[in-house]
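Suppose a classmate hands you a notebook page containing two proteins, each written out with its sequence and a corresponding row of C-alpha cells. How would you begin to make sense of it? This section walks through that situation. The first entry is reproduced here exactly as it would appear on such a page.
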Amino acid sequence: MMKRRQFIGCLTALGGSYLLSACGGSSQDGSTNTASSNAAKATAKVATPVSSTSADGTAIPGASAITDSVGNVWTLANGVVYRNGSTVGNTYNVSLLLWYGGKIWHCGTNNQFYVNVDVRNVSGQWLPCTDPRIAVAATAGNFYGVNGHWDYTYTPAQLVSILKAMGCTTYRVGCTADPIQLNAMVQIAQAFQSAGLTLFVLIEEGVFDSIGNLFGNETIAYYAGYATAQTIARALSPYGVTMYECGNELTRQNGTVMDFSYAGELVMDFNNTNWPVVRGAMRGMMDGVKSVQPSAKCAINFSVADVGAADALWEGMQPDGSSGHQPLRWDITTWHNYDAYGDIFNMGTDGNGPGFDLPTYCKARYGVPFMITEWNTGPDQTEDFRANYVTTQLGEFYNARKTHDIESVMYYVLDSGDDTYGIMINGSPINPTYNAFASFTSSHPDN
C-alpha cells in the first residue's frame, strides 16, 4: 500500500494521469480526462515549526504573543501588528489579533476583520473577511451527494433508485453544450425533478479552444464560456436545475498554475500572463447562466489549497499583485479534496505539514455556502482502507456542516467501471465501501 508521499510522487511523475478522470469524461471505460487530471499534483513544503504553536483561538489582548504553526511570533503594539519584531503590511487601530484555524486574523476599531494570507513570509498582505469564529450552519437537504457521468448506461429511473438507496440527494454531472450530452442531461433532470432530487450541473467549458490551444484573451474566453453556459441553462432550467458549477479545476491546468507542485495558497502560484483567460472563462459561464436564470446559483471550483486563486478572482487581482480587474462574485464555493491533498480542515502546503482550516477561511472570506464536489482516497487503496476512509471523512464533514457552512459533499464517483474510484460496478455495490457509505447516511440524517 502506498503512503501519502509516495502517492503524491506518482502524481508528479506521471503528470496527474495516475489519478483522476474527473467528472467531464466518459467513465465506464476507465478513460482519463487529462486536463482535469492535472489537478492532482504534489504540494509544496513549508518550514518545520521551531517553537510551540499557540492554542487555537489565542488572542491579543489576553495573550502577550501568538506563535503560529511555523514558529513566527506575532505581537500587537499601539494598534500595529508585528511578526518577529517587524511590521506586517500596513496595519493601524488594530484592537484584536487572533490565531484561529491555522491563520492570523486581526480586527480594527471599526470591527472589520482581516486575514493574513502570507504563509511563506513573502509579503504582508491582509484581505477583508468576517470573524472566522462565527459558526454558520448550512441549509439542510443536499448534504449527501455523489458524482456521475452523462454517458452512464443506467436509466434515469435506475439513477433515482440508486441515489435513494445510498441516502444521496445530490448528483453532480458534467456536460458540454453538445446536443447528445444535453439530451441525456434533460432526461436525468426530468426524473430527478419528479423524485425530489438535486441535479448539480458541472458546465464543462474551460480555458482551451476546440483544438487545445489556450484562448487568446479574456474576451474570447468570456464569450466561449457564456455561449456554452447559456445553452446548458436553457436546456435544463425547465426541469428544476438551479445550481451550476462553472468550470472544473480551471486553476489547475497547464498554463494556469505556475508549477503543479505549488499548493496554491498564494496568488503568485498562478500564471499571470494567462490569468485573464481563467477569469474570462469563469465570468462568462456565470453570466451565461444568469442570462437565462437570474436566480440560479453559480459555483466556482478549486482544489488542493488554491485559496490564492480564489482570493485573486474574488478581489479582481492578477498574480503579480495588480488590482482593479473585474472581480468575480460566485454564489457557492466548491472544492476538491482527495486523500493525497491532506485534511481539508488542516490543509498543509505539503498535504501533511502545518496547515489551516480551509472551509473556515472560505466561510470568512467569501461568505457563501461551501461544497466539496469531489472527494475520495487514491486508486491504489484496498476496499477496506477506502471503507474506513469513507466513514472517517463523512464523519468529519458531517460534524462541520453546522459550523462551516458545508452544504454538500459529493463522493467521486458512482461507477468508474472498475474498483479504483467507483462505489459500484454495473449496478452492483462494491463492498465494504458501499455499505460504509450507506450505513453512515442512514444513521446521520441531513437535517
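The notebook's second entry, a different protein, reads as follows.
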Amino acid sequence: MALLPFLLVAPLLVVQAVRVRRSTPQLPAAAGPVEGVVGHGAVLRLAVLGESTVDGVGAATHEEALTGQLARQLAERLGRRVQWQAVGRTGANARVVRRDLVPKLKPADLLVIVLGVNDTLELHSAARFRRDLLGVVVAARRRVGPAVPVLVAGVPPMARFPALPRPLRDLLAARSGALDRAAAELIGLPAVDHARMDPALLDEGTFAVDRFHPGPAGYRSWAGALAEVAERLLSVTDRRHP
C-alpha cells in the first residue's frame, strides 16, 4: 500500500482493528496432552513449533489440531510410528518463540515451524521476520539436532481471513505475502524447505467460529499439504544421510 493512500485510510484501519479485536471470539487453546503417538513401525519424532495454530486454537484437542493431524497423515504416508510434540503459544511472534518456546523442544527427526500471522499483525518488516525466523531455526536445531530437517510452513494469505474487513484485510494480505516470501528465502539453508499455503485451503467453511483460526477441517487440509512437502524433505535428507 503506497504511503499517501495508507495515510488517508490509517484512521479507518485503526478503527477496524479495534472492532475486529473486540468482536472476534477469544477461543481457547486445544485441550489435552501436547504430546502423543500415532501409527506403527519405525519411530519418527515430530516436533511442531509456533503460534496459535500450534497451540491448537480452533480445535477441541491437539489430535484434531494441526500437530495431531500432521502426525496422523505422516504415519499413513510413511508407514511409521510418529511420536509428536506440539510447542505453541497463542499470540507469539518469531522472537518470542525463539526466547520462550525453543527451550521446550525435545530431540526430533523432523521439525515444523509455523509462524508469521502474529508478525503480520504487528506489521513487522520482511527483513526483521526473516532474521527472527532464521534465529528460530538455528536455536531450534541446537535443541532437536543440528542436521534435523526443518519445514517452514508458509505464512497464511490473510486476504482469505473472513474475520478481516477491508481495507484492513488488504493491508494484512500484502504484509503476510511479504513475510511469506521472506520465509521462503530460508530454503537456501541445508535441509530446510518451505511449504507455501495454497489460498484454496482457506475456504470459509474451514474456519473455526472466530472466522480467524482453522477448525478441524481446516487443520486437516493444511496438515495434508504440509505432510506432502515433509515426505519429500525427509526422502531427500535420507538419501543424503543413508
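A careful reader of the second entry would note: The longest helix spans residues 216-240.
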